[in-house]
């Protein structure tokens, strides 16, 4: 029974499962099932393809990003390496440049004044001396005694008279000036050829410089071309003078350097210090709308002050005083009733710090004044140190040394030649600079009186060399061998050497005139000297051996 019941139930279940109304899809045709499967496979394939494309795009983007990062890192590394290489080359170039500059300065310092000491150097010079008859010792000695030696006593008397009158005139000038508003004038000093005892040509003119300072509470702040300020190459040797308040620096206040608000007041400075009108700087002889001292304003003030001073003391003297040259504001002339006259220059100057270097307003009897670029540019003069150097060296030379005689003879010949052919760019200051170089380069015994002829030849040959090279260096500027006894400022010793012939490099006409004048002077030298020389017996001259040129 149970077995039969089980069989019946199994049959019913089998019938129900296989009935067509149940699971109709399971009983479909093979074609319908195949199409459905293919469609699903295509959909799946399309889905997989899109997924593959998306993954490939992501991988490509990641690879591109990675490559960009790697490239940027490579560029950065390359730039860093290039920068390191560039810094290395820059440092190496700077070191090489410094070594070259140090070598150049050492070479220049060792050789720029090595003059006349080597016979080989002199052998290649002296081309202009070929065919020139150079006077011998006897002729030179006679010429010096007849034409030059007698002028020393006249210069001494003139110096004494001019200095006494100048002191009296400056004392009167101080009395007529307003001590609270005008410049303060100091005592004058004599400089130049008259006071160095080598002036030979008349009329004798004394050069006096007069230092002056601003009234309290003002002071001068001097700036030179070698103090780090920006000066163009053609203004080497110049400087500027700024008028400042002395108390401003003493308090350390920055109110003049910082723009304070209109409603703010500096407690360190009272309003009294700012009550002067807007033309305050012009009252202090400054250039318009600046704080820089104007040389033209200074000379106008000085002329007016000298005129007032002379009017005060003129009754004490039996002569007249007048300004002799329009282009030289400090050129004065004393006219006696007998018709004789005495000329001298009284030039205001400004002291550079605590030294004896001075800023000079203009150059008496010189074309250099026309070359000054601006009235706020002041040229530096080292005349006091030049005089001291000559005096210092003279103490070490033999008795009756010939150094001053050489300069006197050369100055006389140059002056005579200029009177024949007209002035040139070559000046007596150039001739004195040549002597200063030779005094430092040659030993003391070479300046014995019997060696006058040889030293005069050395000066001419050195001058010829300078003209050929267009280089004649200032004796003090850039000269590290200046004697320490002079107390010369170190800033000028460390400066670049100043070429006095630099203005002639671009002005070929003046340079050619200067060279022609020098050559003409050499050719006319014997005739000019013989003109002022007494007759010397032939037997006397034959007994003197000439040194070869």
TrEMBL record:
Membrane topology: Single-pass type I membrane protein
Residue ranges annotated for the Mab-21-like HhH/H2TH-like domain, each copy included: 404-477
Keyword annotations: Cell membrane, Coiled coil, Glycoprotein, Membrane, Nucleus, Signal, Transmembrane, Transmembrane helix
GO CC list: nuclear outer membrane; plasma membrane
Signal peptide: 1-20
GO terms assigned for molecular function: protein kinase inhibitor activity
Pfam families: Mab-21_C
Subcellular location: Cell membrane; Nucleus outer membrane
UniProt keyword annotation of Disulfide bond present: no
Coiled-coil positions: 31-82
UniProt main location, coarse: membrane
PANTHER family given in the database record: CELL FATE DETERMINING PROTEIN MAB21-RELATED, INOSITOL 1,4,5-TRISPHOSPHATE RECEPTOR-INTERACTING PROTEIN
Summary of the function given for this chain in its UniProt record: Enhances Ca(2+)-mediated inhibition of inositol 1,4,5-triphosphate receptor (ITPR) Ca(2+) release.
Family that this chain belongs to: Belongs to the ITPRIP family.
Name recorded for this polypeptide: Inositol 1,4,5-trisphosphate receptor-interacting protein
Species this protein is from: Oreocharis arfaki
